[in-house]
Design goal:
single chain; globular; 9 helices; Four Helix Bundle (Hemerythrin (Met), subunit A); 2 strands; mainly alpha
């Protein structure tokens, strides 16, 4: 029974990893909406594996490392593949089938910056003791859901993104992943008053995010990520 209890969070983490694998598969197939959907599923599992580990008090170094490896796939490689296909599609109006002889293949590989910088971000997170209660740099799930929302917006609103915009977003998100900007986490501390400044900022973000999601659905996600950055910087200044 203890072994089962100890591995419940790890099973949830493996579910996250599985979602990432499906997301990569569908990105290669050119089904970016389904690929993005699995990234959102992965984010759901990623939230609950850590939460369950804390509730069950079964956190371990193994679970921490497994979580990072799963995150690298779901929130690093998978969104990188989505961006690759979006950039390629914006240039030639079709999806790539890994034909490196195509001249437009090479501008698209700028999207590989996302998994590269995600790997750096996750390695720093695992070795930086300052990130136990907060983040330094944009968390990989935040960058991933930002990217995953793009195919959803594209499909829902029949929008097309220019290659310049997508490449610019790739570079900015990659730099934010490793930027030395303190960002607050959503872990509420028992020792912290519910009316503390940080908790009020958290609550404001949650309420605004829910309202934006209700009104604009997936189109709200990029703005929620930007709002998260702004509120974190505001919290640092105050």
């Amino acid at each position: 029974m203890n072994a089962i209890k100890r591995n419940i969070p790890n099973i949830i983490t493996l579910a996250n990893l599985t979602c990432g694998l499906f997301a990569i598969f569908f990105a290669f197939e050119g089904n970016l909406v389904l690929s993005a959907t699995f990234i959102f599923y992965g984010a759901f599992f990623d939230f609950f594996d850590g939460l369950l580990a804390r509730i069950l008090k079964v956190g371990s170094e193994f679970g921490k490392q497994l979580d990072s490896l799963a995150d690298m796939v779901t929130f690093g490689v998978a969104p990188g593949m989505i961006l690759f296909q979006l950039i390629y599609n914006s240039i030639v109006n079709s999806f790539s089938q890994s034909d490196i002889t195509q001249p437009n293949f090479f501008p698209s590989i700028i999207a590989f910056l996302i998994p590269i910088f995600s790997a750096i971000r996750l390695a720093k997170f695992n070795t930086d003791t300052r990130q136990t209660t907060a983040f330094i740099g944009l968390p990989t799930p935040a960058a991933a859901v930002f990217i995953a929302s793009l195919p959803m917006i594209r499909e829902s609103y029949s929008l097309s993104f220019s290659s310049e915009l997508l490449i610019g977003a790739t570079i900015v998100l990659s730099l934010l992943l490793v930027a030395k900007i303190p960002l607050f986490s959503f872990k509420f501390s028992k020792a912290e008053s519910i009316t503390s400044r940080l908790n009020i900022i958290r609550i404001i973000l949650i309420i605004v995010a829910l309202i934006l999601l209700f009104i604009f659905q997936f189109a709200a996600i990029p703005f929620i990520v930007i709002l998260y950055l702004i509120l974190s910087i505001l919290n640092n200044i105050l």
